[in-house]
Design a protein that fits this description.
The chain is about 70% helix and about 0% strand. The chain has about 180 residues and is mainly alpha-helical. It has two domains: about 1-80; about 100-175, no CATH class. It is flat, with a radius of gyration of 17 Å.
């Protein structure tokens, strides 16, 4: 994911897509970074980047597409079982844990305000997506905070945006521990 973050900053859209595809093939939680991939595909399409691709770039795109397809297929196969996993997520609507939920909601609102003020729309989209994912999954453990490290370390528009990322990541971790 750090490769994808670096490529995102350098506007290397194909590299972002392939890095995310490889990561997703290795572990499904890379779906946390779906907004980066959607943004990269949108930019690829807008710039019509494929018109000047070399055969190597076409090969990389094909491998990325195959890995993504294999990952999505595997996820579809296992998704019925994921709904049977015991509920262990204090932010999930099925579990009523007021204190962790309050920490989660407050930090999400604070991070959104920081991203808005920093004029960082991609961070706002990431926050909205991550919030949706976090409240949807049935299992959330403190170690899942490591999944947000690439977002925290990715180049940020401002110190306020970086602080919003750190604040939200720490608050999610604290909410899980509570």
């Amino acid at each position: 994911m750090l490769l994808a973050a670096s490529a995102l900053e350098r506007r290397r859209w194909l590299t972002v897509c392939v890095a995310l595809a490889v990561g997703l093939f290795i572990h499904y939680r890379v779906v946390f970074y779906l907004p980066w991939g959607v943004y990269a595909v949108w930019r690829l399409a807008g710039e019509r980047a494929w018109s000047s691709w070399t055969p190597g770039q076409w090969t990389a795109a094909a491998i990325g597409a195959l890995l993504t397809a294999a990952s999505v297929y595997t996820f579809v196969l296992v998704s019925p079982v994921l709904g049977q996993v015991p509920l262990a997520n204090p932010t999930h609507p099925g579990g009523l844990h007021p204190l962790p939920l309050a920490v989660f909601v407050a930090s999400t609102c604070a991070a959104a305000a920081l991203f808005w003020r920093a004029r960082s729309p991609l961070d706002l989209v990431m926050l909205a997506w991550l919030t949706l994912v976090i409240v949807s999954i049935r299992q959330l453990q403190a170690w899942h905070a490591f999944m947000f490290v690439p977002w925290v370390l990715a180049p940020a528009k401002s110190d306020g945006a970086r602080f919003g990322r750190v604040l939200w990541t720490v608050a999610v971790t604290v909410a899980v521990i509570l």
